[in-house]
């Protein structure tokens, strides 16, 4: 008698467990659940892309600092945001017999070429 009661209880418990598992899986396959899972995956992918972009930006900043140090470019404390001090503009020289003549001293009329 106890054997029958034991196996009956074990069978009923196994049936309840299997039914619960099947119902959970069926709920996961409903369109609403699939849409929610896709949205969660999209949000997670967005967070990963944001983290990647921040890592790239940090790497770029680090490499820029290394290059500035290697090139001898210094930071000017008077400029905001630690803007790197760059060399001044170069003067253009006109091609001519006198290499010291600046372009600004030459007169040029574009109609003379035709």
Automatic annotation (TrEMBL):
InterPro entries (UniProt xref): DUF6167
Location of region: Disordered: 70-114
UniProt feature, compositional bias: Polar residues: 98-114
Protein name, per record: Secreted protein
Species the sequence originates in: Streptomyces katrae
